[in-house]
Amino acid sequence: RLHGCLSEQDVLEVCDDYDRERNEYFFDRHSEAFGFIMLYVRHGHLRFVPHMCELSFYNELIYWGLEGSHLDYCCQRRLDDRMAEARPYRAPEEPPAEPRGAARRAPAAEGGRWLERMRRTFEEPTSSLAAQVLATVSILFVIVSMVVLCASTLPEWRAPENRSVEEQSRYTAESGGEPSGIIEAICIGWFTAECIVRFIVSKNKCEFVRRPLNIIDLLAITPYYISVLMTVFTGENSQLQRAGVTLRVLRMMRIFWVIKLARHFIGLQTLGLTLKRCYREMVMLLVFICVAMAIFSALSQLLENGLDLGTKNKDYASIPAACWWVIISMTTVGYGDMCPITVPGRILGGICVVSGIVLLALPITFIYHSFVQCYHELKFRSARYGRSLSAEFLN
């Protein structure tokens, strides 16, 4: 573009400054990043600048007419991971102002600020005093619902096993009037109202439905309404003999409420974010285990049952049965329900245990470093909202 400029005015439209005497062009950009871009022009390899943010370097690439595909493969992967990490924490854009009149812009800005404050109150537990109170109440409801769920499985609470199908159906239908049913209905009402409000104040409704925590909320709330509808429509109909089992399964799905605590605790958020970022390492770990399982299960079945070595171990009658022994040995759990009895089988068992320790330890380092990084990022984000909370408290 500079080569095609015919006047100094055209040159200044392309670059930030121009020195006629020295015939030098000045660009107000990152000088070290430009050096790496020049290395790409000369040698054909484009890599990240050390100790520079990947997103900042990506902005430099866009300015100079390059794309992420021009990077080397290792740097492309770094850029993809960094963009995936930064996407959930990107600051929301301000709503556009009305084009006509300050009187019309003021109500829109006020409404936008109110919606943003409501959104932060429900999404960020440390953003304000109201958000902390709301988070505390939500945590109390989760704890109460879990206590009721655990207590309902005690022999004094649950229905006797010798009830008939009609009695069990009647017991399930009448449980809504008991104290446990009332507490459950109150908790479900709170969770439902919270989910509806968060859906209303959200900016992108489709993105709201796709978020993992919101999906978990739906999985925790929906079974209650399904069980209520099934109880209302089936009643004491003995022909639906599996209705009681289905209702018990749906009621037990309330255990998903525990995952709702991830919205209020950094530890659970760190775990989820680490699993999301380390899915490649997790897949690699599963591949290691599956390959070792296939090898050791076939060898153990051959040594313990396939060959005529004097005794045959019936626990290793098939390779799928031997896979259970392999996974228990590789993870060093060792239930002892089945074990090799031949000398070659015991030698193979020792090799299997040592191999399991080595294979499981290889990807753990990458997962650990990602966990530490995710924890520091979420802690920094929480501290940033904590500073705004302190300012609100002082005001």
CATH architecture of the largest domain: Up-down Bundle
Q: Helix count?
A: 15
> What is the helix fraction of residues, given as a range?
55-70%
Secondary-structure content class: mainly alpha
- Side by side, the strands of the main sheet go 1-2
Give the rounded overall mean pLDDT: 76
Radius of gyration: 31 Å
| Overall tally of domains | 3
Domain Potassium channel tetramerisation-type BTB: 7-74
GO molecular function: delayed rectifier potassium channel activity
Region (Disordered): 87-110
Subcellular location: Cell membrane
Primary descriptors:
15 helices; flat; 3 domains; disordered C terminus; Potassium Channel Kv1.1, Chain A; single chain; 395 residues; two-stranded antiparallel ribbon; Helix Hairpins; Four Helix Bundle (Hemerythrin (Met), subunit A); mainly alpha
